[in-house]
Structure formats: C-alpha cells, structure tokens
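Hi R.,

As promised on Friday, here is the backbone we talked about, encoded as structure tokens. Could you run it through your design pipeline when you get a chance and send me back a sequence?
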C-alpha cells in the first residue's frame, strides 16, 4: 500500500505539470489585461434600440430608466423598449413617466429568450429599418452616463456584436448593506470573463464570450436571426457559440460600461451559478459537434477550438485532484487503522492536492482583484476576506456540477429575482446624473 501511495503521488505530480503546460496558452490571455484598451471614436450617430426585459421589476426599473434618461448620447437617436408579461405589471406604470420609452407585453414568457424574441419580432415587423443596432440591458442595471455614446463609438470598429464592461452596482453605492462576502466573490466573474479572457480574444480575432447585459448587436445580425432564437438557460453563451458558427464578428469594449447587481444571499447566488452550469452544458451539447466539424473542414479558424476545449485542463485538474485526495483519505485511514501506510505519505497525499487546488484558485482570485483594483470599491478587510475566502467559496462549484448532473434542464421555473429595497442605490443614481 505504501508503494502504491508513492506511485499515485508521482503520477499526480506529473499530471499537474502536464495540465499546467497545456493551459499555458490560456494563462497568457491574462497578460493582455494589463494593456490599456484604445478608445474608439465615431462621427456617425447610429439609431439604437435599448431592450430591457422588465417583468415584475418595479423595485429597480426607475433607477435603470433614470440612468438612460441621463445619457450624453443624443436622445433623438435611441428609444427604450421594456418587455413585460402582463399589462397589470406595475413596471408599465412607472415606465409611462419616461419619454421615448415603450412597453411591450409578451404573455406566457417562460425565459428571457422568449421575451427578447417577442419584442424584436414586433420591432422588425412594424419598423424593420428603424434601428442600426440593439442594446440589451437588464432591469437592475444602471447605465454609465456615456454608455450609449461609447457603444456608438464601438460600432466604428466594424464588429457586429459589442460587449461592454460590467461593473458592480453593489460596490458603487457606498452602503455596506448592498454588499456581502458572497456578492463580493461572485462579482469577480465579470473581470475573469472580460479582462482575463475577452481582451485577448479581441487581439486574436476570436468571438468574445458574451454576457447578455450591456451587449450591443447590430441590426443585420438580428434580421439574419429573425429575432432572438436562443432558449437555453444561458442564451448569451448560446449566442457566443452561434457567432462562431455563423462567423459574426464581436468586440469586448471596456469603455462602454454598465453597472449590474449581484445577489447578496447564498440561495440566489447558488441558483444563478446552477443556471450558468446547466446552460453551459446545454450549449456544449448543442454546438460541440457543429463547431468541431467546421474547424476540421477549415470553415472557421482552428483557434475556435478553445471554445470547446479550453475548460478541459482545469476541469481535469480539479477532478484528478479530488480523486487523489480521496485516495489520500483511504491511505490515511489505512495508516491509522492498520499501519500499512506511512503517516507522512498519507497526509501528503491528502494535503497536497488540496493545497494545489487552493493555490490555483487563490491566483485566480488575486489577478482579477489586481487588474480591476480601481473598480473593486470595498474595504481592505473585505478584499482580504475575498482573497483568502473565495478559493474555498469557489469549491462550491463541485456541488453545483454534481447537482447539475442529476437534475433536469427544465427544473428552472421563472421566478422574480430578489432586489434591494427601492432607494438603496438612489445615492449612486444621483451621482450618475451629476456626472453628466
């Protein structure tokens, strides 16, 4: 048993080295995060439709609309379209007080994709050439005062889809009640996706990983799609895959900024991560063979294989590390009960995989905290708690993966998302208006 433990330990170390080497190209993406992105300019004013799914969002919609009403962009060049499910929704009454804001009722909607599809098809049917692009926001978002102006500038790049930078509304209000350890940890996801991933994809000419809020889509893409055909649990990730298949060009543009709200409670954060993982697996099943065939046939660039395989090295590392730890616990039990294994090798087999996992996740926390340090507006004690606690919090994804594996895709029924009480971000909304 002692020899077996030593052998497993050596195999595990060699596996870690191989996994690191294979993942080095993806790690190199981090270097681009330290470069300043060029600001684009456009003399042309494009007509933009702002689409906001707002079902039962009366607690936050006024702040979102206030931020849109305070844009530096010419108000004659954009309209706001809210989407609700019921005419009796109080959100509609709130929206009636704002100029150039219309409300579309899409009854029976069971997912965000159905709401977007309904309003886009209505616009295409009634005014097919009214807009040059469509900007998608969530009802809990606050638009930076120059969001539309910067999105208009980004269209000068010639890219068909533009993803803006997501900032965390919780960190901007200055109120401790708007933050929690959970919110501070999950908020790093946007920096990890955008600054540590999409910035490099810009330079490589690859499709960026899309996040459904703060995303601008040119009208030609919407017309080609005939609306919004995506129905997976993560319709934005599905559009990322579809963009690869159809050859749409995309851009991550950090100067177009939108503030989004993070859940502070564990239940909401867990459900959100579960939806992400389930949606990821849905899209992988649907598009894996399609993208692979197109790459092998030379129809799309081989670098797009990263969409299919980039997560394999870290997933394999975590899985093998978990197996190694389990083997270590077996060896430890054997050592304590029967003395067939040395105590030191058994403890090493238990502790080293855990320390490797923790170390990897520690670095994965440290880099975004440093890269986006100007935007992480939390106290130093909170930053330290996130730095050392997020690796342990991230381990919760193991439970999510297991749960996702044994549950069906259709167990996600729509339900109203808990929001902060009305007015908790009023001070920040006032700051946005004053900055114009």
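Update: got your reply. Pasting your designed sequence below so it's all in one thread:
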């Amino acid at each position: 048993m002692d020899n077996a433990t030593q052998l497993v330990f050596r195999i595990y170390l060699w596996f870690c080295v191989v996994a690191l080497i294979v993942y080095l190209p993806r790690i190199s993406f981090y270097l681009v995060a330290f470069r300043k992105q060029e600001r684009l300019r456009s003399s042309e004013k494009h007509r933009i439709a702002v689409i906001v799914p707002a079902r039962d969002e009366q607690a936050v919609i006024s702040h979102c609309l206030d931020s849109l009403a305070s844009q530096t962009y010419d108000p004659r060049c954009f309209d706001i379209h809210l989407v609700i499910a019921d005419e009796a929704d109080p959100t509609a009454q709130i929206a009636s007080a704002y100029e150039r804001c219309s409300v579309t009722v899409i009854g029976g909607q069971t997912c965000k994709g159905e709401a977007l599809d309904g309003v886009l098809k209505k616009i295409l049917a009634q005014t097919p050439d009214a807009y040059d692009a469509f900007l998608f926001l969530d009802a809990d978002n606050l638009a930076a005062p120059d969001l539309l102006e910067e999105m208009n500038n980004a269209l000068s790049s010639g890219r068909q889809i533009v993803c803006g930078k997501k900032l965390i509304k919780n960190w901007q209000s200055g109120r401790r009640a708007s933050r929690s350890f959970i919110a501070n940890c999950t908020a790093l996801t946007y920096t990890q996706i955008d600054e540590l991933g999409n910035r490099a994809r810009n330079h490589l000419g690859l499709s960026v990983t899309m996040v459904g809020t703060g995303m601008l889509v040119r009208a030609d893409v919407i017309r080609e799609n005939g609306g919004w055909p995506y129905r997976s649990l993560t319709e934005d990730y599905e559009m990322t895959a579809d963009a690869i298949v159809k050859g749409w060009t995309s851009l991550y543009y950090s100067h177009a900024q939108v503030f989004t709200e993070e859940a502070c409670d564990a239940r909401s954060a867990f459900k959100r991560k579960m939806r992400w993982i389930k949606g990821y697996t849905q899209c992988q099943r649907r598009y894996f063979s399609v993208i692979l065939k197109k790459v092998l046939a030379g129809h799309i660039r081989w670098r797009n294989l990263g969409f299919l395989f980039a997560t394999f090295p870290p997933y394999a590392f975590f899985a093998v590390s978990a197996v190694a730890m389990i083997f270590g616990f077996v060896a430890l039990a054997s050592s304590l009960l029967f003395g067939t294994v040395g105590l030191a090798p058994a403890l090493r087999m238990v502790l080293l995989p855990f320390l490797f996992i923790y170390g990897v996740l520690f670095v994965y926390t440290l880099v975004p905290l440093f890269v986006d340090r100007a935007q992480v507006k939390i106290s130093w004690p909170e930053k330290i708690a996130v730095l050392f606690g997020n690796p342990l919090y991230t381990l919760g994804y193991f439970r999510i993966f297991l749960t996702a594996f044994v549950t069906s895709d259709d167990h996600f029924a729509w339900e109203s998302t808990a929001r902060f009480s009305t007015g908790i971000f009023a001070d920040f909304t006032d700051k946005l208006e004053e900055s114009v």
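One thing I noticed while checking it: The two ends are 70 Å apart (CA to CA).

Thanks again,
M.
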